[in-house]
Amino acid sequence: MTIVVNDFLVSAKSTGKAAGLPDIRVAVYPGAIAVHPLEDVKKNFREIIFPQVIKLLTEPAARVAVSARDAAAKGNEPVFEGSFEAVNDYFAARQWTDGLPIVPPTAEKVAQFLACTDRSPDDVLGALHPSLRSATVRSVAIHGVMAGCFPKFMPVLIAIIEAIADYRFHHEDTGSSAGWAPLIILNGPAIKLLGFNSGTGVLRVGNRANTSVGRFLRLYLRNVAGFIPGTGDMATFGRPDFPVLAEAEDANPWEPLSITRGFKPGESVVTVTSMGVMSFQITAVAQSPASILENIALKVKQSLLAGDPLVMTFGSELAHFLLLSPVLARTLAEGGYSKKAIQQYIYEYSRIPAREFDHWLALQGAAAACECTKNGSLPAHFCESDDPQRMLPLFHAPEELQIIVAGTAERNRFCLIQNNGSQGLATSKKIESQ
């Protein structure tokens, strides 16, 4: 059995059913426990939760019939025949769309996508929570069609699903209350070969490649993984989904993100990360590279403090992304700053007194920094002394701030994309050509 608050009852039953427990017992706590005074919490457990637990564990469970899965999960069997409008009505009624019309995934269109990969249609790329369905190459093709992708995108789509199925990504947290959205970052020859935009409005919808591939991931998470709002997806507010962020590699004075992350020159790579918070697109106004970097560091620190609480972003590692326009990257590089020098500067700049750091943690019910070093949620250097005025960094190490160059070439703008910690940790996969 499990205990949940009211809003998670449907989600708990849905998750239990997917895990083979259609008759899972659920005790329900009334209201939002995190905002209740401690005495009220104790009272609710004594008078409401404990009686439910005793009853649920001592009385026979009500057997729930398990219905067969929709034919959509059975492979290449047709699920519907009809006009474009009828197909869309049918899919929408079953919550298989994102609220917009989809391209009907006919057998002919799916075959065109499958022809763009050497992988077998039945190859399994991973098992996705909370549905525990297998992510197959065929289901990738189906959702590529639905999202409006071109067949030639198929190797990119496969790499994306391999990335989210990787244990490091923790895709099972995609539907958490934080409501973060996955962001796809693209590097390598695939950007030009497939027509991705890396310039003005790179994160705007409009370019077919960026937009359709971004939409593909949302549809896939919804239909295969099971992240439907109110069941698998429990985002309090949610965030809009983003097109693919393609790096402007020709305008990058340093190595691209893919090489920073360990891949070889000439390889096409997708990196999928959680978009926890995206800062304002900030203007850097300064008269020298040094003052530009100080300006950027100040705004990064402010953005980190204004984003998710520290307790949500500390764990084994992070992967925040500093997005620089080409003119800012070029100006910093001409001023003698390497990627590593920029990372180190911002890391040292983005510090706050331990007293303030501990206060942030306490507000979220977490232990002080020194206690966190003992339980392994913070590295040892966060407790080199017990001085409340010692300065603590806002991320673990300089390399956790990763740099991407994209956007309008001569616009002096930058922004910070905050990763949501272990939820959606940045994960990269090489795109295998056909």
Verbal overview:
This protein has 434 residues and is an alpha+beta fold. It folds into three domains: 2-58, no CATH class; 72-260, no CATH class; 276-422, no CATH class. 36% of the residues lie in helices and 15% in strands. The strands form five sheets. Strands 8, 9, 10, 13 and 14 form a five-stranded mixed beta sheet that branches. Strands 6-5-7-15 form a four-stranded mixed beta sheet, covered by helices on one side. The chain is flat and about 70 Å long. It starts with a strand and ends with a strand. The model is unreliable at 67-73 (pLDDT under 50).
Write the layout of secondary structure elements.
Layout: E1 2-5, H1 9-18, E2 26-29, H2 38-58, H3 84-93, H4 107-114, E3 124-128, E4 133-136, H5 137-147, H6 154-165, E5 181-187, H7 190-193, H8 208-225, E6 245-246, H9 257-260, E7 269-275, E8 277-278, E9 282-283, H10 289-306, H11 310-313, E10 320-324, H12 326-334, H13 339-349, E11 351-353, H14 354-363, H15 369-375, E12 391-393, E13 401-405, E14 413-418, E15 427-430
Parallel strand pairs: 1-2, 5-6, 10-13
Antiparallel strand pairs: 3-4, 5-7, 7-15, 8-14, 9-14, 10-14, 11-12
Regions with pLDDT < 50 over 5+ consecutive residues?
67-73
Give a quick account of the main beta sheet: strands, pairing sense, barrel closure: 5 strands, mixed
Number of alpha- plus pi-helical segments: 15
Helical content, roughly? 25-40%
Q: SSE string, helix = H, strand = E?
A: EHEHHHEEHHEHHEHEEEHHEHHEHHEEEE
Strand coverage percent: 5-15%
What is the gyration radius calculated from CA atoms? 24 Å
Task: Please provide the count of β strands.
Answer: 15
Please, what is the average pLDDT?
91
Q: What structural class do helix, strand and pairing data support?
A: alpha+beta
